[in-house]
Specification:
Chain B: GO terms for molecular function: iron ion binding; oxidoreductase activity. The complex is a heterodimer of chains A (about 180) and B (about 750). By secondary structure, chain A is α+β, with helices and mostly antiparallel strands. Chain A has helices at about 5-10, 45-50, 110-115, 125-140, 145-150, 160-175, and strands spanning about 25-30, 35-40, 70-75, 75-80, 95. Chain B folds into three domains: about 30-135 and about 190-245 and about 250-280, Aldehyde oxidase/xanthine dehydrogenase, a/b hammerhead (Aldehyde Oxidoreductase, domain 3, Alpha-Beta Complex), CATH 3.90.1170; about 150-185 and about 285-445 and about 600-745, 2-Layer Sandwich (Aldehyde Oxidoreductase, domain 4), CATH 3.30.365.10; about 450-590, Aldehyde oxidase/xanthine dehydrogenase, molybdopterin binding domain (Aldehyde Oxidoreductase, domain 4, 2-Layer Sandwich), CATH 3.30.365. In chain B, about 25% of the residues lie in helices and about 25% in strands. The chains are: A alpha+beta (about 180), B alpha+beta (about 750). At the A-B interface, helix 2, helix 3, helix 4, helix 5 and helix 6 of A face helix 1 and helix 14 of B.
Chain lengths: ~180, ~750
């Protein structure tokens, strides 16, 4: 498992070729594993993850890039997987919520969300956590105003926002590097 | 062993949720799955004159294109009935795709089933419809002259008008009178998980539906009527639900459409509503206005309250969210008149939206109270205390429990209310005008009608599984039930597993009206304590038990061990007894028969809200800087999850006050902002830290554990506290929600 920082700086060659519009073989690298999907080029990364690769931890809230529930990392940057075509992610490293824990041990941010009750229904939670971990690495966790601003791309309709900030503060103050490898 | 009830246990399903492992309704793996997409009417009124499905049918991967011409008709369309009643609970007394008539924009007109979601979606765009439109009514202003007073509203459960005393006389004799009208934009729930149904026919009369719902049994009963099948043919499963706020409280069309489509193609069908469809497919808080007339003496004591509401409903149902109920009992008022006025329009039937009615009705009353306080020169909190009613003003009966004055007092302390300078525009910090405001919060305690059931099974290793058909949509009910069961059995929470979310489990009503946890909690409490008592009874009757011959009432259970209350060294564990007597398990079905709604008491939940706002003097931007909410919700089962419910409710109130509005384009009769980018909800940067506290009140009337509910009371009064604070900051009264910045320029 790679750290968030290492993922961000990974080389990302872009080989543009014309394929489709019918189904094509798309080779993805997700959570450190090679995965192949037979999909049309119009399939979003979100639908590829959820419907083809059975990685349903990434959520579909609006499919319009407005709610942040589908946040994953592509080459270490947080992206909205609903607005990203799966085929454009070939030769890139995709990281989802399923890769965050180390076996049975929760990532510190997952543990902090659990302990701070930083969610209710849990549907936006994977996206919140993927953003929150990235926020630490990006250095946007100076104070609550900054956290609030940079976490505002992830809507929580249960409105656990104060607890989400508390969870991020806790990981920040415990010196967590925002590092998936702990 | 300290009691589990009242502790701050982490959510039992939390670990799965932070790992992305919980399976929501669109995520359950199903072999041979197909995908359905609903196509919606583009006009708001009229009929379909022609349909061309040929291109869609030819599109790659398409298995079926269904319209009213080839969809098998539903057997019966049950009448709207709120799901708390425990029966079939359709969101409206209308089912689409039975003929060519269009009643509202967004009404389903076709379903496409294909092998992938992308292909179904694309094929849906290839269907050609021709319409003959007729003029549509989509705004109150278009038809206020056609308003009528319904005999009953809310699925027939509430009267359309109510009165006591002589309002006209009291108004004529009033020393002070506040008469104001408030307008409310429509609101949409927008849970982050869109509604989803996956329908799987095991054979011709065995259907499983994975559905996102507040009540699996409600879906089962509703589908049974729509599909013409007995309830035994239908199983509804809801493992995890991604928020609801009322949008999944009633049963809308998508589970039945998914089932009909699946039967048609002979394969499982998954139907997930799009975000845009969430604005036209599962109800909303209706556009409304409310006129409040408060008559009072010079000392501020209310002599009359007149409360009229005008709102838009559908062609099918006399629906109004019950905005007048809580205000009618908030204060002593010998004379009262409340009337609902409805206008029929081209809309889906509106529905429950978190604090349905209370959020708007208490806004109107509490803003009017603030105006009254200003008029007579009395502190707003003092005015509430002068009008506090120690009994239910409607029935004259005592409250089952209240705690309201204690809530005021505690909120004032936490907020620093006393010593407030009441003059508007009296406080400024640079560019910002600062103001504070307060409001009362009331929410009714509504009892389910049908018996509430839960099953408890204790195994001979001392672990227990406890089951009931409640679904978990973020309330924390699975966690709270684990705690109730642990205390009922006298074992640690780690040895309890609570299972819910299926109509095959013991029947409980839909978790609505802030009554879900108390309904299922009462049943779990009875099941587990009866199971404990059963084992104690067996122990004292067993010749080999150290408890032989003891009085069962003298035995208690701690950490799975039955011991004499006054001699804790004498006893044995459940496991010892069960192993010795060859019992693999013991099982009890607990049944709670709710008391009648009118059991000789007024039953309401109370609270107090306070808010501080900063308003940009030039730009009109409103920032809520802090909020304090203190509530008396009876027994709190889990301090952590209850706090989250109340805090989330208060932030919902912030959204109602400042952000949330669905805008109708009357030209097309369609919502103009049906997306999460355009319908504004609070985001992290909008949400201040919130101080939440509770006042303990003991209530022996409402249910065995004295729970009054925390799901909605947090919303009530927040918008009024914010609007009153905006007035305090700026000197400008607010008569319309949301308070957008142009109203302050």
């Amino acid at each position: 498992m790679k750290s968030y920082e290492a993922l961000r700086t990974a080389p990302n060659p872009d080989h543009a070729v014309v394929r489709g519009p019918g189904e094509v073989e798309v080779h993805l690298h997700v959570n450190g594993e090679s995965r192949t999907a037979i999909i049309e080029p119009r399939v979003s990364l979100l639908d590829a993850l959820r419907d083809r690769l059975e990685l349903t931890g990434t959520k579909k809230g609006c499919n319009q890039g407005a709610c942040g529930a589908c946040t994953v990392w592509v080459d270490g940057r947080r992206v909205l997987s609903c607005l990203t075509l799966a085929i454009t992610c070939e030769n890139r490293e995709v990281t989802t919520i399923e890769a965050l824990s180390e076996g049975d041990t929760l990532h510190p941010m997952q543990q902090a969300f659990l302990d701070c009750d930083a969610f209710q229904c849990g549907y936006c939670t994977p996206g919140q956590i993927m953003s929150a971990v990235a926020l630490l690495a990006e250095g946007h966790v100076g104070d609550d105003t900054e956290i609030g601003e940079w976490m505002s791309g992830n809507i929580c309709r249960c409105a656990a926002y104060p607890h989400i900030r508390a969870a991020i503060r806790r990981v920040r103050d415990e010196g967590g590097p925002g590092d998936a490898s702990r | 062993m300290s009691p589990a009830i009242g502790a701050t246990l982490n959510r039992v399903d939390g670990r799965f949720k932070v790992r992305g492992e919980s399976r929501y309704s669109a995520e359950v793996p199903v072999p041979n799955l197909t995908h359905a997409v609903v196509v919606n009417a583009k006009i708001a009124s009229g009929r379909i004159t022609a349909i061309d499905t040929s291109e869609a049918e030819r599109a790659e991967g398409v298995l079926a294109v269904l319209t009213h011409r080839n969809l098998s008709p539903v057997a019966t369309v049950p009448k709207l009935l709120p799901s708390l009643a425990g029966l079939a609970a359709p969101g409206q007394s209308f089912f689409p795709m039975q003929d060519e008539t269009i009643h509202y924009a967004g009404q389903p007109v076709a379903i496409v089933v294909a092998d992938t979601i992308e292909r179904a979606d694309h094929a849906g765009t290839l269907i050609r419809f021709e319409y003959a439109p007729t003029p549509a009514t989509t705004l109150l202003d278009q038809a206020r002259d056609q308003a009528y007073v319904p005999e009953r509203i809310f699925g027939g459960l509430l009267p359309g008008h109510a009165s006591r005393g002589d309002v006209a006389k009291a108004l004529a004799e009033a020393e002070v009178c506040v008469d104001t009208t408030y307008r409310f934009a429509p609101n949409h729930h927008n849970p982050i998980e869109p509604s989803a149904s996956t329908a799987v026919w095991e054979d011709a009369d065995r259907l499983t539906v994975y559905d996102s719902t507040q009540g699996p049994n409600s879906v089962q009963f509703t589908l049974a009527e729509l599909l013409g099948l007995p309830p035994i043919s239908i199983r509804v499963v809801s493992h995890a639900v991604g928020g609801s706020f009322g949008s999944k409280a009633m049963v809308w069309h998508h589970p039945a459409l998914a089932a009909l489509a699946a039967r048609h193609v002979g394969r499982p069908v998954r139907l997930v509503l799009t975000r845009e469809q969430m604005f036209t497919s599962c109800g909303h808080r209706e556009e409304q206005e409310q006129r409040i007339t408060l008559a009072a003496g010079a000392d501020g004591r209310i002599t009359a309250l007149r409360h009229h509401k005008l709102s838009l409903t559908s062609p099918f149902d006399d629906w109004a969210e019950p905005s007048l109920q809580s205000p009618s009992v908030a204060y002593t008022s010998p004379n009262y008149e409340g009337i609902y006025h409805l206008v029929r329009g081209n809309t889906i039937t509106p529905t429950f939206t978190r604090a349905p009615g209370e959020a708007t009705g208490m806004f109107a009353l509490e803003c009017a109270m603030d105006e009254l306080a200003e008029r007579i020169g009395v502190d707003p909190l003092e005015l509430r205390l002068r009008n506090y009613s120690a009994t239910d003003p409607e029935s004259g009966k005592p409250w089952s429990s209240s705690g309201l004055t204690e809530c005021y007092q505690r909120a004032a302390e936490l907020f620093g209310w006393h010593g407030r300078d009441p003059r508007p525009r009296s406080r400024r910090e640079g560019q910002w005008l600062i103001g504070t405001g307060m409001a009362s919060a009331l929410y009714p305690v509504t009892q389910p009608v049908n018996p509430q059931r839960a099953r408890a099974r204790l195994y001979n290793d001392g672990t227990a599984v406890v089951e009931a058909g409640v679904s978990e949509f973020g309330t924390g009910v699975f966690t709270a039930m684990t705690q109730v069961a642990a205390d009922g059995l006298g074992i640690p929470v780690e040895r309890v597993r609570f299972v819910g979310g299926s109509s095959d489990l013991p029947n409980v009503t839909a978790a609505v009206g802030s009554a879900g946890t108390s309904a299922v909690g009462s049943a779990v409490h009875l099941a587990t304590t009866q199971l404990r008592d059963e084992l104690i009874r067996r122990a004292v009757a067993d010749d080999h038990s150290p408890l032989r011959g003891a009085d069962p009432a003298a035995v208690q259970v701690r950490d799975g061990k039955m011991v004499l209350r006054d001699r804790p060294d004498v006893g044995e564990t459940y496991a010892d007894l069960m192993h010795r007597t060859f019992m693999p398990d013991v099982e009890v079905l607990g049944t709670w028969n709710p008391p009648p709604q009118d059991a000789g008491y007024g039953v309401h939940t109370f609270g107090a809200q306070m808010a501080e706002v900063a308003v940009d003097a030039d730009l009109g931007v409103v920032r809520v800087r802090r909020m304090v909410g203190v509530f008396a919700p009876g027994r709190v089962l889990n301090r952590k999850t209850a706090h989250s419910q109340l805090m989330g409710g208060m932030l919902w109130g912030l959204g109602q006050a400042l952000l949330e509005a669905t805008r109708m384009d009357p030209r097309m009769g369609r919502w103009a902002n049906a997306s999460l980018g355009d319908y504004l909800v609070p985001v992290n940067a909008d949400a201040p830290d919130v101080v939440v506290d509770t006042i303990e009140v003991h209530d022996e009337v409402v249910n065995p554990l004295g729970m009054k509910g925390v799901g909605e009371i947090g919303v009530v009064g927040v918008a009024a506290a914010i609007a009153n604070a905006v007035h305090h900051a700026t000197g400008r009264r607010q008569y319309e929600l949301p308070i957008t910045l142009e109203k302050l320029l």
